[in-house]
Specification:
Length: 394
């Protein structure tokens, strides 16, 4: 009898986000199949660490991370630079020392959890029969030079690039033709039943706002990818046009203060609410009237997955992967990357409860819902003999 595969996944830090939640679901699903699952985190202390399946063996390469100011303009900044540099240096020492313990760990599969994370640990430290990299965003729009460096330096030791949508796979094949035959589609796991269970049995978090429809956005607070300032502008325009609603944002991130300033400048602090990082967002999905995803780019949007599993009407800008999730006018609305188009779409949804109900009941693609099929083919890739995987993992 063939033993279940021994699998290790390397990820930077488990903070709140769609990619991190997808990673947790994958780890649990592999453990459910009897795999020996290891998770190596570069930095300790992410918000989602308490939610890691207890069957997963967790390792940390560093206990701390040092933040070094971009410029030094006084004694305060100099002190921050010294402290940040010391923490960074100590973290690098920790990582080099702790990496030594993995050199004798024999694995069936080693996975780099993000294309922006260097595969050096997966390729140069670990002894693994197969190596993989998860690709979670459109390679043409990320604009991150590390991606190109990582591909050029390590692609010869990578068996497959696991792209979270067909659109992401195509973007990788166009941007990096040298890995075209190694790119496969590997949809994120959803665990729909767990989402539904977490949405049950709680009071309405929007009860005090129930005089008007409630729009919900769930995202990392990062302007460049999520279009935070655009949300505030759209909200202000709709209010000025006499379209009553409140807008609620779940999440945290580096541009929290930027978003706060925009809310104050637009004078919408009473109707545009930031709720921070919420451990159980599914309660909010369940009671939202509309879920708005105004990202500039995605891979396959986890928020759209979550909203549709809980049968909420979705409006989304046109980004990579959205056509695989939403059929425009059937189970959601897709609008162009334009403030005016977003306003038109949201106006129709806010003002038409019948439309909202029809889109909420519009179903969801079977390929995205069938977690068992996704896990079957991933395990086949991890444990199989082939060294040049070319199939789609659907």
């Amino acid at each position: 009898m063939t033993p279940p595969p021994r699998i290790l996944l390397h990820y930077p830090v488990l903070n709140t986000g769609g990619a991190e939640r997808s990673t947790l679901r994958l780890l649990s699903a592999l453990a459910n199949r009897g795999c020996e699952v290891h998770l190596v985190l570069t930095v300790k202390g992410g918000r989602l660490e308490p939610q890691i399946d207890p069957r997963v063996i967790v390792h940390h390469l560093r206990d701390t991370v040092g933040n070094i100011p971009a410029k030094v303009s006084g004694l305060y900044d100099l002190g921050r630079w010294v402290i940040g540099g010391a923490k960074w240096s100590w973290g690098r020492v920790q990582q080099a020392w702790r990496s030594r313990r993995f050199t004798k760990m024999h694995l069936d599969a080693a996975i780099c959890g993000s294309a922006g994370l260097s595969p050096e640990f997966v390729c140069n430290v670990l002894d693994a029969r197969k190596r993989f990299v998860f690709v979670r965003s459109d390679a043409r729009k990320v604009g991150d030079k590390r991606w190109g460096k990582n591909v050029r330096e390590f692609h010869r030791c990578i068996n497959a690039y696991l792209c979270v949508s067909k659109s992401v796979r195509l973007s990788m094949q166009i941007q990096y033709p040298e890995v075209s035959d190694k790119c496969v589609t590997a949809y994120n796991l959803l665990d729909a039943e767990a989402m539904r269970a977490q949405s049950r049995g709680h009071p309405d978090p929007f009860e005090e706002y129930r005089g008007v429809p409630c729009v919900l956005s769930v995202c990392r607070l990062q302007e460049v990818s999520k279009g935070l300032l655009r949300m505030v502008e759209v909200h202000r325009r709709l209010l000025d046009a006499g379209v009553p609603h409140t807008w609620h944002v779940l999440g945290d991130g580096p541009d929290h203060d930027l978003l706060e300033r925009a809310i104050q400048e637009q004078g919408v602090s009473g109707t545009f609410k930031l709720h921070g990082a919420i451990a159980n967002p599914f309660l909010y999905y369940k009671h939202a009237d509309i879920c708005a995803v105004l990202s500039r780019y995605e891979g396959l949007c986890g928020v759209v997955n979550e909203a549709r599993v809980l049968e909420r009407p979705v409006i989304a800008t046109r980004f990579s992967g959205i056509e695989e999730q939403i059929e425009d006018g059937v189970n959601g609305l897709i609008v162009e990357q334009d403030v005016a188009a977003i306003c038109v779409g949201l106006t129709s949804l806010i003002g038409d409860a019948v439309l909202r109900e029809r889109l909420a009941q519009g179903g969801y693609p079977r390929d995205l819902l069938d977690d068992d099929a996704k896990v079957d083919q991933l395990i086949a890739m991890f444990s199989g003999a082939s060294t040049r995987p070319t199939m789609d993992v659907r």
